[in-house]
Every structure is written in C-alpha cells, then in structure tokens.
Amino acid sequence: MAEAEEENREEIVVEKKSKRNRKKQKTENPSQKEETQERKQNGEGKPQQQDQVAGGDHPAQNNNGGGSSKKRKQREAFPFGNYRNYYGYRIGQEVDEDPRLKVLKREWFEGKDCLDIGCNSGIITIHIAKKYNCRSILGVDIDTARISDAYWHLRKFSREHSGSSSTNVSKEEVKEKLKASKQIAHVVPGDGEEIKKEASFSEKRNLFDVVSFRQENFVDSRHSHEKQYDTILCLSVAKWIHLNWGDDGLITLFSKVWKLLVPVFLY
C-alpha cells in the first residue's frame, strides 16, 4: 500500500509540473508573436508585396521575392525620356496649355516649315500648328508608341478644329499614316518617310494638311530629309541624347540641325 501511495504522489507531482509548463508556454506566446511581427517588419519574414511599378498602371504581383516586378520595371523603363503622358507629368493635368507656348513668338512659325525633334505625343506640335499657323510642321520621336499617341491627338484636335463633318476622313487618314509609319520603322529601325499633304498657305486647311509625324531616331538615323526647315524645336531632348550617346551624340545632333536649317533660321 505504501508503494502504491508513493507512485500516486509522483504522478500528481509530474502532472502539476506539466500544467505549470503549459501555463508558462501560454504566457510566452504573445511575446513570441510580437517578435515574429517585428521580424516581418524588418524584412526577415515573408516578403512584402511590391510597390506599384514606376510608370505603370497596375501594381506589381509578388512572385518569389519580386522577380516579376523587376522584369516589369525593366519593360516600363524610358531611357530616352519617352514617357507616356509626358506633358501631364511635366506640367500637370489641370493645365490647359503648355506654358512654353507663351514664350514662343508667332514670327518664328507663321508661314514657315518647322521640325519638332522629340515630339513625344505631339501635343505641343499640334498646338503650334493651330496657334501660330505654320505652313507645315513635322514631329519626330524615337518611340513608335508615342507616334501612335501623336496621331490619336491629331485626329482629336482635327475634329475639334474642322468640325464633325471631317471626322470620318480623319480616321482613315490617321490609320493609313500610322500604318505606313510602323512599316517603315520595322524595315529600317530609326528611319522613316515623311507623310503629309501639300497645300497652299492661303487655303483653309485642316490640321492633317499641316501636321505630320514619323518615328525616327534623329541621332542614328540614316534618312536624309527632303527639305530644309525655317524653325527647328528640340525641347527637353538634349539631356537624353547626352545621357545615351554622350558628347558625340550632341555633336551629331547639332551638326544635323545645322544642315537642315535654311540660311536664315531659328533653333
């Protein structure tokens, strides 16, 4: 009997120790959770969801430490400054007109043939044609996607400028011009062929008679322009040429511009 009682006492002691250990573990759990949360915040735990991709419209998806987001960032990079919606990025969506237009003089453009190097989506190119009544203006940009945007804006402004009666014609014209521009870009990268209609300055014309666009890498292009220009614009472009092609790129830019300008010119 004494031995049985002794065994019962030992079992009771073991059970009490077991209960105390379980209680101790329960009291330690909250602190362990806090440590786990701290590790997660410090990046030691599960990877955090990636931030929105710079220049993109959709947040990046998490994939084994963000590998997919890195690829997306590479695709969304704009090494030549060819940002989408560049004008909204620079001056804000709430501004109706690019403030640079206020410092441009009418005599630089009125009745003249003009060239806009690095035209991006073509908005300022079109505004110059509308506001200053130039004879012709050609916008060139290294990015085919920006030229597509430029033709979209050209159709939009042409409809507003000429009235709804010219809408159908403008759609057909912009499709043909854009198709030709893309075909040229695929055949000879960086080169293009000027696409525009000739019209006398005294006639009433829509914007398609004045404005044209093409994809062209102006620095590396082997295409020779068929005519010279009275005025050449190169807005917010020189720094990107310098970043990508260095001093030689700038020298090439100014050399080509010099050859394309008429004897009495503006640059």
From TrEMBL:
Region (Disordered) location: 1-77
InterPro entries: Bin3-like, Bin3_C, BIN3_SAM-bd_dom, SAM-dependent_MTases_sf
Pfam families linked: Bin3 (PF06859)
EC category: transferase
CDD domains noted in UniProt: AdoMet_MTases
Domain Bin3-type SAM: 98-267
MF terms in GO: O-methyltransferase activity; RNA methyltransferase activity; snRNA binding
GO biological process terms, semicolon-separated: methylation; snRNA modification
Keyword Transferase annotated: yes
Protein name (record): RNA methyltransferase
